[in-house]
Amino acid sequence: MDLDNIKKTWQQTDIRPDIDDDKIRKMLSNEGHSAFNSLLKYERFGIIMLIICLPIGYLVFGKYMPVAVSYIISVLLGILWQLYKYRKLKEVDMAQHSITEISNQVYRYRKIIYKEFIVGLVWFIAFVLFLGYWEFSDEGIPSFIYIIAMAIAFVAVIFTYKKLYWNNIKKLEAAIKEVEEFEENEE
């Protein structure tokens, strides 16, 4: 009889978790929100820098019209790409979407950045070789200087991506994972 009473009392008890959706979102917003805002800021900065680079590139590469044209086309495509990435990030609504939706969107964004990184490195090498062909033929720059400058720029690109993108994406993913683990433990 006592066992039945305990069971009945247990079933009637309204057990609510100590944490609700707002608290979960607050957990995500601490570390993850600042990383997310940093990514948005970097995307806006990238758009502005590409717009600024458009006329500067023409002045720098105007001496070699094929290089200038390929540079201008690349920058215009880069602006469109930055706008696409910015729009994808703006679709992530941490206040309204579930943790699973946010996680999926961050994963897709990470894949976009990875593809951008690979394509960007290939473009960089091709553009520098294309520019180098014109410079070597006109200016007589020693090839070892050109190779050293290219290597330094290559390392700078990798460092920039790590600093701006990979670190913030890792912070955001860690915050999402922490919330997902907490939700799993609550169930």
Word description of this protein:
87% of the residues lie in helices and 0% in strands. The chain is an all-alpha fold. The longest helix has 44 residues, at 143-186. The chain crosses the membrane at residues 45-61, 67-84, 117-134, 140-161.
Structural class: mainly alpha
Main beta-sheet strand count, sense and barrel state: none
- Tally the helices: what do you get? 5
If you average the pLDDT, what whole number results? 79
Kindly report how far apart the N and C termini lie.
Answer: 30 Å
Into how many domains do the coordinates divide? 1
Strand content range: under 5%
Q: Which spans have pLDDT < 50 for at least 5 consecutive residues? A: none
Tell me the total number of β-strands. 0
**Whole-angstrom Rg:** 25 Å
Residues in helix, %:
over 70%
Order of helices and strands: HHHHH
Task: Please tell me what the overall shape is.
Answer: elongated
Structural topology:
Blueprint: H1 2-12, H2 21-61, H3 65-90, H4 99-139, H5 143-186
Helix pairs in contact: 2-3, 2-5, 3-4, 4-5
